[in-house]
Q: What sequence folds into this?
């Protein structure tokens, strides 16, 4: 009986810890930029740049490696739900934007979308995913 209890406890711990760790982390999905997107006149760029292709963007969240933003979704996993996270956005390897966020700023959200508006001011936005099922599809 003792061996059974010990085996049960070991099994419980082995299966519970990964599940607990998973539930304590969030995901940021960096949405792709269209291949045909160009610099918009409302972006604040010089008039000579309007209509030119967008710069090559990279995103870095926390201490993770920079990820190029292209035409595919990027998933950034295992960000702790507690604490604040630094997001850095680079345009042609130059720091363009940076900001902090907390998952607690988005009530009940463990999945966030980071995207750039391709028309108008071409700003970066972080928002809660519409549903947990749409995590980085």
A:
């Amino acid at each position: 009986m003792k061996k059974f209890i010990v085996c049960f406890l070991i099994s419980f711990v082995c299966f519970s810890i990964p599940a607990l760790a998973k539930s304590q982390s969030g995901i940021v999905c960096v949405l792709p930029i269209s291949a045909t997107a160009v610099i918009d006149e409302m972006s604040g760029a010089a008039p000579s740049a309007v209509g030119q292709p967008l710069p090559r963007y990279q995103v870095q969240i926390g201490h993770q490696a920079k990820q190029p933003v292209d035409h595919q979704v990027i998933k950034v996993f295992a960000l702790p739900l507690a604490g604040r996270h630094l997001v850095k956005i680079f345009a042609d390897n130059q720091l363009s934007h940076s900001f902090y966020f907390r998952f607690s700023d988005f009530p009940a959200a463990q999945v966030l979308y980071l995207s750039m508006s391709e028309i108008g001011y071409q700003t970066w936005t972080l928002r809660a995913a519409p549903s947990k099922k749409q995590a980085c599809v």
Q: What stands out?
A: The first strand starts at residue 25 and ends at 30. Helices lie at 2-23.
